[in-house]
User: What shape does this take?
Amino acid sequence: MISNRIEFDIVSSQFCIHYMFEKESMLRGYLENVSTRLAENGVFMATTIDSDRLVYKIRESGPQLSIKNKYFSVIFDKDTFNREDIFAQQYYFYLQESVGEMMYASQKPKHVPEYLITFKTLCDIAAEYDLVLEKKVNFHEYYDQMVTRCEWEQTKKYRQDLLQRMVMNRVTSLDQEQIEQ
Assistant: This one.
């Protein structure tokens, strides 16, 4: 058990907070843990799926309620969502070599359940735990700001290298399929 006195200047939550949207109690417990371990003036950083973009892409895909390319696939079992029931809005996800697994006998991916985030709800509940949003950026916007439009060539190369090592697992560039999804 972690001592009650241990606090952190930075709490980083990368692509996991959406799992807390299975139930409100899970989100509240998670945010309580974050807020009680965060030092005064500490920073909580989180990344997650852009639920609005994902739902838009699914609705755009037509009646099959899925999107995919050679890297990933997402499957929804419905295209309407009850705005009153903001938790347990489930979909199924597979990401090559990362999330889910390839069923080698059938050569079909095994998807894992994930959950949409209602961003306003996340901010409202986070505020109850004294967590305040300072910045919200979609990955496409972030990539554009930090890599594509960087003003100094030296910094641009550093940021591209950092992004490739940390996020893209040494992929040399994003191809059009990766960018569009």
